[in-house]
Design goal:
This protein has helices at about 20-30, 40-55, 70-80, 105-135, 155-175, 195-200, 205, 215-230, 240-250, 255-270, and strands spanning about 10-15, 35-40, 60-65, 90, 140-145, 180-190, 190-195, 215, 235. About 50% of the residues lie in helices and about 15% in strands.
Length: about 270
């Protein structure tokens, strides 16, 4: 497939203002896609849009939005319609973590998390899907995580569960669209260099982990883009992450949970309550 296979098409990327979202925006632009950039931080989106125009010669539309608001997906689609834009590719990347034990966070924090990480993913997909099917072309990339493929742990209680949902949802939807030109992929990165751990406050902890398990956001985006074009419903990025996922897939549940218990306790205490 040529480097400009996205000419004349548009990709919408949520959480585009940093990290993996920014990397996906550049990856799609490198392939010729115009971009619709969604995140809360308008200044960062505007700077990214200018970079995309200069680096790749594509158009970039900035739509600041907060996906914790349940009305945001419908509003976004209305804005897209008013600008006569189509969405040929959708990257559901927006997300955040809620550290600490479940009971120590107010309910609204958990509700916002579920809205961003689960409901908005499904809602935006539901809005994009019909026109993609009608055109006979579509790419939906849902950024999940290796955390959705390994045993759940205490602390960050909803994170793994939400990512497991995104993986299962993506696999089911991919089955519905076999052969119709719409590809759906759950991208499952492990530890990735981004702002994520700075926001959580556990940067010093995770930096102590071996460098071999880390990947950069550009590599994650490149591998995710390729996997979606190839029609793979789940893409675990990196050999180490694939080995980890494979190991936990064959271990008895109790053994896998035992292996996860000690490191999970360390990160829970330091990043939580």
């Amino acid at each position: 497939m040529s480097k400009r296979d996205g000419e004349g098409r548009t990709a919408l990327v949520t959480g585009a203002s940093a990290g993996i979202g920014t990397a996906f925006a550049h990856e799609f632009a490198r392939h010729g896609f115009d971009l619709v950039l969604v995140a809360r931080r308008e200044g960062r989106l505007q700077a990214l849009a200018e970079d995309l125009r200069q680096d790749h010669g594509v158009n970039a539309t900035v739509l600041p939005a907060d996906l914790s608001d349940r009305d945001t997906p419908e509003r976004l689609w209305q804005q897209i319609s008013e600008r006569n834009l189509t969405v040929d590719a959708l990257v559901n990347n927006a997300g955040f973590g809620v550290p600490g034990d479940f009971r120590h966070q107010v309910w609204q924090k958990h509700a916002d998390f579920l809205q961003v990480m689960v409901t908005s993913v499904v809602h935006l997909t539901h809005l994009a899907e019909p026109a993609m099917v009608q055109r006979g072309y579509g790419r939906i990339l849902n950024v999940a995580s290796l955390a959705g493929l390994i045993p759940p742990t205490g602390g960050h209680t909803l994170y793994g569960a939400a990512k497991r949902f995104v993986i299962d949802f993506s696999e089911a939807l991919a089955q519905e669209h076999r052969g119709d030109g719409l590809h759906v992929t759950a991208v499952c990165p492990g530890f990735t260099y981004s702002e994520f751990h700075d926001v959580l406050g556990n940067r010093s902890d995770v930096q102590a982990l071996p460098s071999i398990i880390w990947m950069d956001a550009d590599s994650v985006a490149r591998l995710g883009y390729a996997a979606c074009n190839e029609g793979r419903s789940v893409a675990v990025t990196g050999r180490v992450n694939r080995a980890i996922a494979a190991l936990f897939s064959i271990l008895p549940g109790s053994m896998g949970q035992a292996l996860m218990k000690r490191p999970a306790r360390k990160f829970r205490v330091r990043s939580g309550d």
